[in-house]
Each structure stands twice: as structure tokens, then as C-alpha cells.
Queue: 2 jobs
Job 1
Amino acid sequence: MTTPRVAPVRFLCAATALLVAGCLDSSAPGPTPGSPGFDGLRAYALVEKQVAFGPRVPGAPGHQAQLDWMLARLDSFAPEVVSDTFEHISSAGDSLVLVNVMARFRPELDRRIVLLTHWDTRPTSDKAADPARRGDPIPGANDGGSGTAVLLELAALMADVPPPLGIDLLFVDGEDFGPTGDDMYLGARRYARQIASGDHVGERPLYGLLLDMVGDADPSFPVEAHSAERASVVVRKVWRAAARLGLSEFFPEAVAGRIYDDHVPLIEAGLPTADLIDFTYGPDNAYWHTPDDVPANVSAATLGMVGRVVTELVYAGG
Ligand SMILES: [Zn+2]
């Protein structure tokens, strides 16, 4: 073990940058003064906690356990928490009971944004190399767990240091039920309908930012194509926040990949929303939708990096 490969070396530099400002770009101005520090290790512990509940598949015990835990946690941090329970009949004829959870910070402010992630996990490991495992639910450490962990940790920070604008943290259910798109993005579609009809809670947010798959150990967050085309203002804000923190190496401004994700229904409802997503989870995306989506394949340093960018977006005023 004397010849490190290129990727780990680059990553060590990134990990160091979390502790020593300026490793990557000493000319970066750094975070907005007064903004709280985001701790990737704390977010990582929240990933482990979620995976320990078991699969968060609608109807499974882990789904209810995680819901109870999230609600208790958010109730302790946010002045207002709203659960929105709804039913979806799947294409197989199953009735799913789904819950979107919104934690509202500075609910009195008209100027606000929505930060969202899905909290459910996929019932099947469609992409498992071993066909015998394809019926297993994924553990969902990264896919479901990572975005939820980052936003839950941000909630703790906002409880201590009130944000300068209204923040709605939205944890959507039923993103990954599948197997086809008819039974996916269910919580986001519900919220999008509420936005389109004016039936949403509180003031309408100015824009949205979606976090999905934000924990890979070899992070790269290029710009997603729907986001670039239909939420360019949001993209500019987020990627500039990353640049201020000296993280442009990991947040390249190039457009790469097009993903139908929870942001698309929101865009179609008229709410510009960008998707912050790492398209490649593990070598050649080997861990995505497999039993290998476990905490050991999620990085506290990456969670910390993403958490710092979102924190910077918020405390710079959105
Ligand atoms: Zn997924």
C-alpha cells in the first residue's frame, strides 16, 4: 500500500479542505460571516441512524420508525412542522400511505426558499449484480439517507442561528417506489400540485433546491441539464456558493447528465428548482439501487462539503 491512486489523493485534499481553509483555492473568500459551521460527521451519524431503521419503504416498519424519529427531531428544531399524509394506488394496485414532512423556519417571512430531499427508499435492488438480490430493498444510505441527513443537520443549525430568510425544509415521500416512473416522485408531484393550485402551506417559495445522492466518497456535482435549462438562476446561486468556499473542483459548472428527479414536477408547476446530485455512486455507479448502498460507501467529508454549500446558500440570503 505504498502507491496511492489519483482519486484518493484528490479526496484527501478535499477532506483536508474541510478543516484547513484554502487547500483547494486559497483565493476563495470563504463563508458568509456569522454563518454556522456544518459538521459532516454529525450528518454521517444521521445516515447510520436511518439505515438502522431498516428499509424506509412505504408500509414497512422502518418507514414508520423513521417518520416518527424525523418528526420528533424536527419538532425540537423548527417553529412549525407540517405533515401531509396522502394515499397513492400503485400500478400493481397496492395502496400506499405516504407522508411529506415540511419544517418551516422563519415562517413569518414572505421571502423564502424550499430545500427538499426524498426520505423513502427503494423497495428493490434493481441494479444488483447478483440476480438473486434484485428483490431485496436497498439500504438507502446515499439514496434517501444522504440528503435527509444533510437537511436534518441543517435544521439543527437553523435552530441555533436563525436564517436571514424563510426556509422550508421539505422531506418528500415516495420518490423511489417504482419500478417505473408512474410510481415515483409521488411526494414531489403532490407538492407540485399544491404549488400550482396555490394550496401550499405559507408563502410560495421563490425557488427550490433538491438534494439527492449527495454522499459518494468520490464527489462530483456537475450541473444537471433540466436544472441548467429551467432553473439557471438557482444553479448560479448554488455553484457560486460552492466557489466562495473554494469547492469548485467538486462543483464544476459544466452541464453533465439529465435526470428526471423530484425537481422536474416542481419546475413544471412553475417553481424553478435545481437538482444537486452526484450522478456516479461508487466505481461505474456500482452501488446505485443495490444492496451496497450502505453507510460504508458514504463519506462524512462529502456530506460535510454539501452541507457547507447549502449552509452558505442559506446564510448568504438565498
Ligand atoms: Zn433511487
Note: The pocket of zinc ion is lined by residues 122, 143, 176, 289 (CB under 6 Å).
Job 2
Amino acid sequence: MSIASKARRLFVGDLHGCLAELDGLLAEFAFRPGKDCLFSVGDVIGKGPDVVGTLRRLRDLDAGVVVGNHDFSLLEAARQSAAGQEPKHRDYLESLGRDKVEWVDWISTWPLYLESPDVLLVHAGLDPGKKSPARMDPRILTQIRTWDGKGENLNRAGDPPWFECVKSDRIVVFGHWAQRGLIDLPGFKGLDTGCVYGGKLTGWCPEENRFLQVPAKRAYAPIHFH
Ligand SMILES: [Mn+2]
């Protein structure tokens, strides 16, 4: 068996409905459905041009997806009455179209993290104060950028990035920090390179130890780093 025939994993950064760029990345990688494995860092919904198409592609390729802060807000809104929903989150629900109940059902199955012996996948990052991701607050797993020593302010200039405060025996793959851009440290791969803002969609393959990038076809949303 040649090396080329072995299954590979492709981890992709924050999609926010950028289907054309996802398809571009899959083509660049020569992704083989049923053989290679696709994983998303979450924040699949919101902001971008084709949320339903992106969800459908991920589901059809049997992708592993962890929940991002925007996906999390969508699930919260789905549990509230229309009157109680923030307009932005109501828009998220509407963007799911006529099959929104089915899409919400699927999104609600996404875990906060996925792990294998060599990789831990999470949307934003890890709590430096805790050992096991099973014990970490969903708010931290889906929102952290910087560490204040307590987990109260998760995004403060002057505080260190969470990954400078964490020791992990596995490579942590994450997204959520478009402003920071690509993070390529031995134990940490940050894949949010702001595709929906007109940046790039980034993928990372551990088997080939390489990043792949596809430029956004255009800026789909004004820069708003949340
Ligand atoms: Mn995010």
C-alpha cells in the first residue's frame, strides 16, 4: 500500500458559511470522501454567504465538528421564544432556511471538543487552570483568547494568549482568533484566518504536516472579531 492511499485528516478553520472556499480547500487537498476525514473547528454558521450549503457539505462528508461560540448562540436562541431572541441570533436561525429544525437538531449533537491520542480539537481554547477538557466551562472552550488567571476576562490586551499558559501532551487544534491569524506552534495549530472577512480559509493535515490555504473570494462581512 502506498503512503498516498492512507487516510488523512483535514482540519479546517472557522467557516461562517464560506462554502465556495471550503470546496476550494477540499479540491486543493484532493479530499477523498469515505477515506479521508474532515474536521471543523466550529463557527460554521453566521455572517457568511451560504450557511445551509456549508452545513450540508459537512454533514454529507460525515465531518467531525465542535461547537463554536456562534453555533452555541444559535442553539441558545433555538430554545427561546422569538420575543426573547437577540435580533442577530434570530437572523442566525432564519439563515438555516426551511429545514432549520433538522439543522438545529444536528448542530445540537456537536461536542465541545473532540480528541484522539495525538490531537485535541476545540473551538477557542483550553482553561489553563484545569487538566481535563471534560471539566472545563463551555464558555471558556468556545470563547477564550487570553488568560487572566481566573477565567473571567477571556479577551484582554496585555494578558497572555491561553496557549502560552497550557501544557498539552497532544496537539491542540482550534479557531476563533481571526485577528491573531495563523498560529503554528509545535503543540498548537490556530486555523482562523478570517475567511469571512476576506482573509483566507486555512486547513491543516497532521499526516502530511502541512497547512493549506485558499483566499476568500471576497469579504462577506465587515470585520467584527467576536
Ligand atoms: Mn468563534
Note: The helical segments are 19-29, 51-60, 69-78, 87-94, 100-107, 138-143.
